[in-house]
Amino acid sequence: MFENILNKIKLRNPLVHCITNYVTVNDCANAILAVNGSPIMADDIKEVEDITTICNSLVINIGTLNERTITSMIAAGKMANNLNHPIIFDPVGAGASKFRTDSAKKLLKNISFSVIRGNISEIKALAINTSTTQGVDASINDIVTKDNLDEVVKFAKKFSQETNAIIAITGAIDIIASKDKAYAIYNGCSTMSKITGTGCMLSAILGAFIAVGQSSLLETTAYTVALMGYCGELASQKIRNRDEGTSSFRTYLIDALSTIKYKDLKAGVKIDVL
């Protein structure tokens, strides 16, 4: 299935509208380009609806939140919903402040999202009103482990049913869930947390892959998450081999996204159906 998605994305070169944060916007654009998508970053209320109309998907990321962009996000989201375009929501830092959490919930109320992707603390902040987020990072008390895996899967399925969205909880173990099926993914590496933007980049490339894989939303999301994690592993191995650092890791991560072959991905993914 995902082999077809990789082929389709090369042929269609989907246009992805990102309303994202200015810390990682360049990396998000380069990541989309690396996987054969085409990024456009537009957040002014005067053009977001027009831009959404010409695009194939929408990515909303609240990393550098302000009232102006919330208005633009809602306008773009409603237009995308009207056009039946897939929408990815990255609730960066939800739970860190009342404004951030309230704004994320406002977006959930006004927009029907296809995929909601965040760390476990961010997702819990939206689903059960917790405030354990540490800045933009998950609380150590929320980390997904093999011991609490079943509990987290049950939680993710319930939130998927409530939102009618695929829930992607990313971390040391990634959980991708619909209301009645879930995947656990064990790809990735600790170096991915040493640079800013790997989560934002993942949300961005989800916009590209889901634009061509909307008919198999759960599986497309799961394999895109696995792809990102495996590319992180490849980049990490390269900096170890060359005794290099995190700046090189960032470059090699984008290199891996742009050169990965399906046969290598198939051999490298670590994914279980739950």
From TrEMBL:
Show the catalytic activity: 5-(2-hydroxyethyl)-4-methylthiazole + ATP = 4-methyl-5-(2-phosphooxyethyl)-thiazole + ADP + H(+)
Q: Give GO terms: molecular function aspect only.
A: ATP binding; hydroxyethylthiazole kinase activity; magnesium ion binding
- Name the pathway it acts in: Cofactor biosynthesis; thiamine diphosphate biosynthesis; 4-methyl-5-(2-phosphoethyl)-thiazole from 5-(2-hydroxyethyl)-4-methylthiazole: step 1/1
List, alphabetically, the Pfam families matched.
HK
Top EC class for this record: transferase
Q: Which CDD domains match?
A: THZ_kinase
State its cofactor.
Answer: Mg(2+)
Q: What is its EC number?
A: 2.7.1.50
Domain of life per record: Bacteria
Give the matching HAMAP family: Thz_kinase
* Name of the protein in its database record: Hydroxyethylthiazole kinase
State the organism of origin. Answer: Thomasclavelia cocleata
